[in-house]
Amino acid sequence: MSGHVGNLSDTQAALLAEFKERVKDISKPEYDDYFFTRWLRARNFDLKKSEAMLRNHIEWRAQNNVDSILQDFKPPEVVEKYYTGGLFGQDKQGALIWIEPAGFIDLRGILMSVKKQDVIKSKIWLLEHIYLLFEKKSKEQNRRVDQMVIIFDLYKFGMKHLWKPGMDVFTDILTVFEDHYPETLKKTFVINAPRIFPIAYSAIRPFLSEETQRKVAILGPSYKEILAEHIDADQLPKHWGGTYVDKDGDPRCPSKIGPGGDVPSAFFAQNCLIDLTGFTEVSIGRGSTHQLELPVSLAGSIIRWQFKTDGFDIGFGVYKRTSDKRQKAKDMDTVLELGRVNSHMVPEDGSVQCMHTGTYILRFDNTYSWTRGKKLFYTTEVLEPSGRDNGIPRCESSQSMSDQATAGEDAVFVNPSQT
């Protein structure tokens, strides 16, 4: 049995009745069996876990004024103009389709323009709007419409998209989606996945439930044929294998699907990125250095960093040890040449892909300053690649992962602040 209304086993039906009795103190007239079974399916019909999840959701809605968000909040202009994606059509069973050309998003530009919480709040606003659309479509079409199919197009997705603050926002949005809009996702198709996709997926996988992971399929070059098995041609833009085009003939239909693009500096606001929560603080004395040792055990791993200094600039470089013994910088392999950065003005961030295993050194250099010590705030992370068959779902008829070369993908080092 599917666990959906109209297709419940006797055991599931009994659990539904008991669940409704358990939560009757927080129930509302609009909460129907479809609503309650969503929370049950999200926790595999475990009554205790489902009840805890629903009660947490009700409290979350109250704390964040979600019931009135459509009236009280308007997404910032930069989010409306430059956040990628949009709703387009329905699949053959009626699920709404969301197309996300994620490779064209400039999350750094967005986060330099508005606060992180405004971006997350904009996504909550969007989900509430989608749920109203579910109700409207259900009434108009005389069938239950309450799920979505998401198409993630990763063409142009590269190293700069692994920028930690941007990934943190994405995982926060995923957490909201998983915890408060359960069973909304019917299926996710990932197309045009670049070679670094296993690393990106390994970073977000811990935030996905097992059920959500089972709904993700990685499609190969024949993805248009596979999408056609699930979606009629008139319900997809021509660019993704359908027949629909914008009024001006554009096959990507940017009038409905946000195309993204670089955010103009006119939108930038001061101090939007300066949130030092979770950063490590150290003091570097005058004429001194501070080195971080990061062991890399899997070739292809990515080291990410973000740092800020208080008041003055700092030298920064990345090296790889050539010996197990302690070495000076001149005796190590240079991965990123040492240079002075104005991290006191704008937080510095970047990443490097480690093509070889070993110990990598992040070196903060203050040897040029004989009069001033520096206060440094930093955070680092090593992202290891997942194997192609290690937890990454694939469509049965898909081919191997695309080997396309995307912008920034073949570069060993990408500093988003310079792109």
UniProtKB/TrEMBL annotation:
Residues 396-405 have a biased composition (Polar residues). CDD domains: SEC14 (cd00170). GO terms for cellular component: cytoplasm. It comes from the Eukaryota. Signal peptide: none annotated. Residues 388-419 are annotated as: Disordered. SUPFAM superfamilies: CRAL/TRIO domain, CRAL/TRIO N-terminal domain, Supernatant protein factor (SPF), C-terminal domain. This is SEC14-like protein 2. It comes from Elysia crispata (lettuce slug). The lineage of its organism: Eukaryota, Metazoa, Spiralia, Lophotrochozoa, Mollusca.
